[in-house]
Write a structure and sequence with these properties.
CATH class: Alpha Beta
Largest sheet: 3 strands, mixed
Number of domains: 1
Order of helices and strands: HEHEEHHEEH
Bound molecules: nicotinamide-adenine-dinucleotide
Helix content: 40-55%
CATH superfamily: CBS-domain
Number of helices: 5
Strand content: 15-25%
CATH topology: CBS-domain
Structural class: alpha+beta
C-alpha cells in the first residue's frame, strides 16, 4: 500500500493556512480562491486547529449571532487528528472514516510537512487499484509472465 510520503510527492507539500485572528470572511475567501475545503489555523509555527467548510456551515446553522467578521479561532476545531508521512494511505482512510473527518495535517517529528484530503486518498487508492488491474490484465493476456 502506498504511503502518505508517496501521496505528497505528487500533491506537493504546500499547506494553506491562516492565523487564529483571521476573520471568517477572509478565510472563506481564501478557501474559494484556492478551491479548497479547509484551512489549517497556525499559531506561529504550531498548528492550533483547522477551519473547514463544515465548521462554517454548522456555525451558520446553529448560532444566530454568528458574524463573518469574527475570528476563525472561535469556530475552528481544536482537536487535530494528524498523520505522519510514513503512514499508509489505508491508515489515512481508517482515521478519516473513524473520526468522520476529511483533512489530515501531516506532521513529521513535530514539523508540518503537508496536508491531505479525502479526495487525495481516494484518488491514490483508485490509482493503485488501476495499476493492479493493469498488471493482472497483462498477466492474463500473456504479455507478462
Ligand atoms: N483529481 C484530483 O487530483 C483531486 C484530488 C483531491 C480532490 N479532488 C476533488 O476535489 C473535490 C473536493 O476534494 P476534497 O473533499 O478532498 O477536499 P478539498 O476541496 O479540501 O481538497 C481539494 C484539494 O486541495 C487540497 N487542500 C485542501 N485544503 C488544503 C490546505 N489547507 N492546504 C493545502 N492543500 C489543501 C487537498 O489536499 C486536495 O488536493 C472532490 O470533488 C474531489 O474528488 C480531486
Amino acid at each position: 500500500m502506498s504511503t502518505v510520503a508517496d501521496l505528497l510527492k505528487t500533491k506537493g507539500q504546500q499547506v494553506f493556512s491562516v492565523s487564529p485572528e483571521t476573520p471568517v470572511l477572509e478565510a472563506l475567501r481564501l478557501m474559494a480562491e484556492k478551491r479548497i475545503g479547509a484551512l489549517l489555523v497556525m499559531d506561529g509555527k504550531q498548528p492550533a486547529g483547522i477551519f473547514s467548510e463544515r465548521d462554517f456551515v454548522r456555525q451558520l446553522a446553529q448560532d444566530a449571532s454568528f458574524d463573518v467578521k469574527m475570528p476563525v479561532k472561535k469556530f475552528m476545531t481544536t482537536h487535530l487528528y494528524t498523520i505522519t508521512s510514513n503512514h499508509s494511505v489505508g491508515d489515512c482512510m481508517a482515521v478519516m472514516t473513524e473520526h468522520r473527518i476529511r483533512h489530515l495535517p501531516v506532521i513529521d517529528s513535530g514539523d508540518l510537512v503537508g496536508l491531505i484530503s479525502i479526495g487525495d486518498v481516494v484518488k491514490q487508492a483508485i490509482a493503485v487499484r488501476e495499476e493492479r488491474i493493469g498488471h493482472l490484465e497483462d498477466y492474463m493476456s500473456g504479455k507478462v509472465y
